[in-house]
Amino acid sequence: MAKADKAAAIAELSDKFRTSGAAVLTEYRGLTVKQITDLRNSLRGNATFAVVKNTLTELAAKDAGVTAFDGQLVGPSAIAFVDGDPVEAAKGLRDFAKANPLLVIKAGVLDGKALTPAEITKLADLESREVLLSKLAGALQASLSQAVYLFAAPLSQTARVVDALRAKVEAEGPVADAAAPAAEAPAEAEDTTAEAPAAEATAEAPAAEATADVAEGGDES
């Protein structure tokens, strides 16, 4: 490859590293052209699967500040440059590798952070962005519905309680007024009873004095 072509290839790869949200390095030894094409098609919309030259890729990665592939660029290499959902891209690579064990996932980088093959598998196990957004939308809708209920329910319940209390007061009002004199009557009776002994004591006092006078008169005679 001419020097100018190498420089152009390095610049292109370097730009892919910079503009991609993630990149996954694989080894495709033994895969057929059809299998690689099928893999490209399965990743379409989320990633671009490109066969690369190790030396040029190493220089491009270094130029872009990517160190996740250091020491990994050996054998026939291909990189999935992710420009869509990294979870979906990881799922596509994982599923294809399960069906075609000749594809080996070697390393990855996500937002500048190096990923091991195990971490890429964990990434593939996550729910996709669309599923998460759908769940978030459902949660928000449920929260709004609950909020409407929480705001509306106390108002309607309060109205029902107030109406019930008003009806009760209106129904019991006349009965309470009629019962008031009856409640006062026993108190007056109790007062009359309490005064009776005092009257009796007053009535008995002259009789006692008269008896005393009679007794004294008897002694003098």
Automatic annotation (TrEMBL):
It comes from the Bacteria. CDD domains: Ribosomal_L10. Keywords: Ribonucleoprotein, Ribosomal protein, RNA-binding, rRNA-binding. GO terms for molecular function: large ribosomal subunit rRNA binding; structural constituent of ribosome. One of its GO terms (biological process) is translation. Gene3D superfamilies: 3.30.70.1730, 6.10.250.290. Residues 175-221 are annotated as: Disordered. Residues 175-186, 194-215 have a biased composition (Low complexity). One of its GO terms (cellular component) is large ribosomal subunit. The keyword Disulfide bond does not apply. Forms part of the ribosomal stalk, playing a central role in the interaction of the ribosome with GTP-bound translation factors. Part of the ribosomal stalk of the 50S ribosomal subunit. The N-terminus interacts with L11 and the large rRNA to form the base of the stalk. The C-terminus forms an elongated spine to which L12 dimers bind in a sequential fashion forming a multimeric L10(L12)X complex. Belongs to the universal ribosomal protein uL10 family. This is Large ribosomal subunit protein uL10. It comes from Pedococcus bigeumensis. The gene is rplJ.
